[in-house]
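pinging the channel bc i need a second pair of eyes. not urgent but kinda urgent?? the chain im working w is below, pasted from the shared doc
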Amino acid sequence: MDIRETILAREKANLSPLAACAADTCGRETPEPEDNIRTVYMRDRDRVIHSKAFRRLKHKTQVFISPGSDHYRTRLTHTLEVNQIAKTIGRALNLNLDLIEAIALAHDVGHTPFAHCGEEVLNMRMQEGFKHNENSLRVLKRIEAHGKRRGLNLTREVLDGVLHHSGFSASGKALTLEGQIIRFADKIAYVQHDIDDTIRAGLLEEEDLPDKYTDVLGHSLSDRLTTLVEDLVQEGLALSPGPDGEKPKLSFSQPVHEALTGLRAFLFKEVYTGDVCQKERERASFVVDFLFSHYLKHPEKMPDFYQQIAVLEGRERGVADYISGMTDNFCVALYKDLTMPRSFIG
């Protein structure tokens, strides 16, 4: 028995009956020889970590654009926080941590520069619309490369978890409980940590948060994180397979779900779409929109790979792929290069 088979046997013997064991994977679109040591989910995780799209997350905005401090979250630190929260929940429920980690690290690789305002610009400019979760899937299947082949050829379970990580209904949509956990861990992370960054920026105080939500969740970052994680774990421990063996749906308890959605709505009103970041959002949106128009008129100015996509799938698609992969810094540098006299750029 090789090491991988030992790991597979250990999963079968020790993980929860609700866990997605690697031996039961639905597989990859293109079959591959098995690794001697790693399971399919371990290999998926490694491919994501070594991808260029993952590395670029360190220079993509989470909430605050160009905050002037290294202490604010970026899309990469958000991803790592989602991974940490999700693995804590997954370990408590005795689920497959390798699958959880693979989905968590991959879930935002399709995010645009400048956070959601970049996504909104692309969504308006593309006839078919643009959603970052769907774009993450495209990045993993079409844009990134594994060896000489386009696409990372990840397992169906990982791709499904990435696709369904977005949204905020009371229950999960992913096929696996591991994928469902990512959806909740994402919300736990960004609502609580965005509050932390907003307080750090001096734009809100803890006392400004509505009591009707914090009385349920807690009156500090750590208390709220603890409440949310423990609530999801307690709800998860009560789950059992459906009558036909289908995976149950994970959810928060109703009071905690209502408090979290209320706190999220407060953030949207006061921070995400409020006056707090409006000027920066407008500037960032203008840059993304300008670049989209420019490359739509001049697709030959894009790298060869994106020119090929423009020919095969349409200019909008090629331009959206190019821009969505950019970091904030690269976007600004391109804009300056295209609009300012070179003597002013230094």
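so The mean pLDDT is 92. and The chain has 16 helices and two strands. — does that match what u expected or am i reading it wrong
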